[in-house]
Amino acid sequence: MESVSHEHRKFPPASAFVKRAHISGEDAYKALYSKSIQDPETFWAEAAEDLHWFNKWDSVLDTSDAPFFKWFDGSRTNLSYNCLDRHIEAGKGDKIAIHWEGEPGDTRDISYAQLHLEVCRFANAMKARGVKKGERVAIYLPMVPELAISVLACARIGAVHTVIFAGFSADSIRDRVLDSETRMVITGDGGYRRGKMLELKKIVDEGVADCACVKDVIVVKRGDDHPVDCPMQAGRDAWYHDLVADVSDVCPAEEMEAEDLLFLLYTSGTTGKPKGIMHTTAGYQVYSYLTSKYIFDLKNDDVYWCTADVGWITGHTYIVYGIMQNGVSQVIYEGAPNHPDEGRFWEIIEKYKVSIFYTAPTAIRAFMKWGDNWVTNKDLSSLRLLGTVGEPINPEAWIWYHKMIGSERCPIVDTWWQTETGGHMLTPMPGATATKPGCATVPFFGVEPVILTDEGEEVEAGILAIKKPWPGMLRGIYGDPQRYQDTYWCKWDGKYYFPGDGARRDEDGYIWILGRVDDVVNVSGHRIGTAELESVFVEHQDVAESAVVGIPHEIKGQGLIAFVTVIDGRAHDEPLRQELISMIDKGIGKFARPERILFSSDLPKTRSGKIMRRLLRDIAEGKELGNTTTLADPSVVEELQKQYLKA
Ligand code: WT7
Asked: Which residue of 389, 426, 463, 530 sits with most ligand 1 atoms within 8 Å of its CB, as the best mutation to test the pocket?
């Protein structure tokens, strides 16, 4: 990661782009940024004026119960109203909201007026099944339009959605459903991925089998011409299309209070138990709206495409809420980037004349590997802005993206943010910031980053911290206010938000993200806590202990290496390895499979018994071992290292 931060090339935005941009030129950015820091309340109040409020706020920011901050307290609003009704009232109902493309090639174009209608109908269907404001609804769907419709229908009636990425296992569904006491689950019979049908309903059935809180399971039919085995449980299960067939089209948006819970999204931390990140209504609304507008420089004639799944925060903010509040047209694609061939993404860009494209570094590295030929025979001239998200991008991939996809014409926004931050925090302003390959550059309006030591002294390279609250910030961890304070606000005595990333400031004042400083690993942009894998492994009867570390990976960014201590006398061979892998599939999901599992008779520990992960990382990266003098038994690492090199 260090090498990334010694990249010196600089790419100023093209003057044609700057001229038309919302934030035009560096001086414009600097002026507005300093206003946002000196007088945040005025800055955010002005931004909020663009949106619809049933009732305006009494105060913009209330810090009296920090770190439980309140934004736009006293206001009443509704996210679904701002994503839909507002555009229809402005005469834009016929504009396409979603160009949807299924993996097999089936398509649906949905206007804002049609989307509004579908959201109202499904919202009424949920109400008819008894869903009330404040109740939790889990959504486990492939990337079909009903995913966005379900999210917006929840927001419309004030139900709290908790979207579970469709790659998660039955056990992961169970954990999330129980933690949030979900009353309804919305799922599908299946979804297409690389030509195959993922059978989701079966996974849901297994996941919620013992969850008494779940009263309803609603099933979206995707497998029309594809027979899917989808048993329906009488009294609990219903088909989505049956429910929306006989309900009214009219569903007034619920007037939500500013701090009413909008959604929960579970994410990984340093323990084995994922955290239910809480996002509330008014602040998230304004932050998702404004970051989308400025960072993607959204204009009325844009066609936007974000390749993330709605199951992650990127999809919540930059497919649904932020993008739709800006009323632009977007592409949503169901399937894999290499189906039926490796040119699929570029074909979609050509077909829909996509102007803004937002994807992950891991995807860019895969495209590089697949070869330029998939790109060069496509017309990508509609593109005007590119973005990346989710993990650090290596300069080589950045340059490829810049040249091959952006024809050296499109600015690239490398956006650093998190599930917890709700929206972009560090990112170039596309019409203002000269970019550097691999650098997240400068803060968004109202965001004040600092780089600190553990003791809280400002330094050039160290731990990233955020000084002030911002409207899109998380409001807590569901059911665990103490964990919220401990995880994010205790490191520097409540003075700063602690995101968990390392960072460095360069000679231009730009910030480079250096990766996580905790035991969170980013595999293909999927955030995984090493402790989650460890807690799965130790459930195996032959496993005494385990430690999982992240190592650099050419395509995935990071990969996982698992060290597993087997109980004396038990076999550690291929069958055990297979059993452990299937436990990960079942306990978390296939995307969390480690690259390698190494068996050992012990793990390197200090004399006080603490596992020395630093040494495990050295072994896994094939590096020379760092200081081993504090080890209780140095022979343990030697044995592990021998085994690692052998395999
Ligand atoms: C972690 C958050 C941001 C939405 C998707 C991931 C890493 C994210 C970048 C970037 C370097 C990045 C950080 C962060 N990360 N974006 N542009 N450059 N690192 O959200 O799953 O909550 O993960 O992803 O380590 O803490 P998430």
From this structure: 389
Q: Which residue puts its alpha carbon closest to atom 17 of ligand 1?
A: 416
Q: What is the pTM of this model?
A: 0.96
Q: Which CATH number fits domain 79-87+107-254: 3.40.50.980, 3.40.50.2300, 3.10.180.10, 3.40.50.300?
A: 3.40.50.980
Q: pLDDT tens for residues 6-38?
A: 678 999 999 999 999 999 999 999 999 999 999
Question: What pLDDT, on the 0 to 100 scale, is given for residue 1?
Answer: 44
- CA nearest to 261, candidates 86, 135, 124: 135
Second-level CATH architecture of 524-646: 2-Layer Sandwich (3.30)
Q: State the DSSP code for 592.
A: G
Residues in CB range of 20: below 8 A, 6 or more apart: 297, 299, 431
Q: What angle do CA 259, 264, 267 make, to 5 degrees?
A: 130
The DSSP result for 292-315, as a single string, is HHHHTT--TT-EEEE-S-TTSHHH
Give the distance (Å) from ligand 1 centre to CA of residue 383.
24
Q: Give tens-digit pLDDT for 398-441.
A: 999 999 999 999 999 999 999 999 999 999 999 999 999 999 99
Q: Which amino acid is at 523?
A: V
